[in-house]
Amino acid sequence: MYQDIYYVPKRTSTYSDVLVAYGLATLLDHIFRQVKDPTERWRIVLEDNGEHYLVRLSEPIQEEWVHRLPALRNPAPLIVRRGQAAANNEPARNVDETWEQVKLWGEQRRVLVEQGVRGTELEQQLRDLEPPTDWATVVFLGDFRMQADGIYNRIVSQWTKACAHISEHVASLLALFARPDSDGNTTLETWNKLARRDGIRPEETASQLLNPHQGKGLNESKANALRMDNIKDRPWPEEYLKAVGLWHCLAPRQTMDTNDWKVYVITPLRLSWQAHQEAFTRFNRYLWRERGGQTALKTDITSVLLFSRAWLDYIEAAWRDDDDFDLPAAPEKVVAGFHVAQFKLLSRNAYTMVNLSFLSMPAWGGDLRTRADVVALQGIIDEHLEVVRGIDETHSDGFDLLHRYRDFLSSGNWDAFFDFAAGYGHQIMRQLNDGARYVPTFTIFRLRRLMMTTRKDLTPIVENIGFQNVAYAIRHSTIIPQTRKANKQDTLYDVRYGLGAELRRKGTVRDEFVAALTDFIQSYNQENVQKLESKGQQLRRDVRTSDIAEVVRLIDEYGSELVANLLIAYGYAREPREEQPGE
Fold this sequence. Notes:
Helix content is 53%, strand content 11%. It is built from 23 helices and 12 strands. The strands form 4 sheets. It has a 4-stranded antiparallel sheet with strand order 1-3-2-10. The longest helix is centred in the middle third of the chain and has 26 residues. The chain is elongated and about 95 Å long. The C terminus is likely disordered.
């Protein structure tokens, strides 16, 4: 049990296993803090090896360290309410006071914004009022309708009893995870004797918060073993580690449309504990500053994108401070994604877990070698966040768009992205036609960079000069004149409504797509000539016959549907020099 690798088995394939791994890492970090000099450094790495989560240490835990451990302060705080106090000076978080702090911060922020205070000055004036970054976890645990705080507090409060013989209890905890094939039952039987001696309740009720797969009425994978009563045989050591771990990897969010709680649990691939703590703190801060009132779909998308942003921000800062920084920079190489659980209010006083899912991290990082690569990926994420935030998911078309985007984000399915791009192009045109002066769009160079990272086979298409010129013609027949029209500028050229939908519809049949494309280019060039003759102006380039020949060659090589999808995605994107109002 005194070693440098510990094994947390994946018994449930839910976030319950992840909570145990983070709880164990927290306990090991506490041990290092107790026995090491403050100037010394140690390293803890969480790693997924398939059947287990490994907790790797930079040096083995020594038996003498455990034997001389003082009574460790409880790593998990109690949840209390106004007028309550934790016994024995234990750490505690007050739900009511936390809520008041959040409301005061929000009210003060609103007042300052109305006074015209923005940016850095706004942040500085609010700094003293900021609630703790994990305030959402306090509120989530303290929501009486979750019915979790009672079990949670009972589990956590037993740590005080263990402190009387802390070295023996810690040794038992380490023994539980000492081998990949550890006999947990034998270890628990030994620990039960310690528990009875110290007055610790050896088995606990399975809270659906810590065990989302074992909610009341649905607690086994096979229906023949379902039990309608509460499960009360969960060993305390594992439940305690889950209660500790949730403070370090679980981010709760509440949805606008249904008032559901959704929890996002970070699932490590190979993640330094120290790096995780810094990135997770940033992630929490970004979450609670994210615009509120999002639906379940948008919270999924923004959670994934904001964690990627938080990790890249941490990497950039670490790179700036340490030239020899050696962590993998790409988010998808350190974190597999999020376990997600959705809790719905099925009765007036009780949330119930209704759905478990997993969101993978998008493989957008590739091989990030320099700070410039990191900054470029930050720009891509910011751009996608801006587009997603602008979609109104309360309407059916917005909901469908976000659904396709989430498929693309989590699975890397570019067909889903093309569906999204085609639908979003239509939405851009509609919003501009309805009077919007600015609608967020993707930019050409960031779209190209993302494709070159994740779909290198598309590079010959998007770098083809003929393809780029035809996409330019689409852009200057749709969103460019529509934007000028929305901003009361001279459009000169007609707006081609429905062009994207027509090209996408014809794209399934090669000859029909070529005919539709050449018809469009012929009318595009003809309009250029007519405007030059009648107005003496030409605000856009002609498409050459060589451009058409290049695109037809690409169609024959890659297929009409793929080329059509890419032309629409690029045609409704924006070039950097095409500044938009409001930027």
